[in-house]
Specification:
Length: 160
């Protein structure tokens, strides 16, 4: 079974429609219908958006996920001629993925990435004042609720 049929099965099990999922994910319904009909692979970026909408792990939808349970070496991801490399052209983004995002995924697991993606998208949707309020709230929470073991692990990861 390919990505398209697996996606159709997940959508049916969730009791929703392709059109509704496409709209919520911001993907053309035609794109999803075509992927389902041809049972073709689903691009990882689309897979992540769909996983967020359907509340499932991206690996259930996208067989080409770089976040599969067996993570590829970072050099293989960054140097491949896959769509990931085509998407990530800016060297600064490559460094961010290699030095910050990839270690976070490796350390804390891929199952949290859909939630992380939702939070990041929501944060970016806010106006400047609201984003600053979020940063201030996180700083306040860190004063009283910091997990010292996690903080130590996070501290070893390079910042942007």
């Amino acid at each position: 079974m390919g990505d398209g049929k697996r996606l159709k099965e997940i959508i049916e099990n969730k009791g929703t429609s392709v059109r509704k999922v496409a709209k919520e994910a911001g993907i053309s319904p035609t794109t999803l219908y075509t992927a389902i009909q041809k049972d073709s692979n689903i691009r990882f970026d689309f897979g992540l958006q769909l996983a967020n909408v359907l509340n499932v792990n991206v690996n259930e939808i996208c067989s080409t996920s770089p976040l599969s349970n067996q993570m590829l070496p970072i050099d293989e991801i960054l140097n491949s001629s896959s769509s990931i490399n085509e998407t990530i052209k800016d060297n600064r983004l490559k460094l961010y993925i290699k030095d910050s995002l990839y270690p976070l995924i490796s350390e804390f697991g891929i199952d949290n990435m859909a939630d992380f993606d939702k939070l990041l998208r929501s944060y970016c949707s806010l106006d400047d004042e609201s984003r600053q309020e979020i940063v201030d709230t996180i700083q306040l929470k860190l004063k009283y609720h910091k997990d010292s073991e996690r903080a130590e692990k996070i501290g070893q990861i390079k910042e942007w």
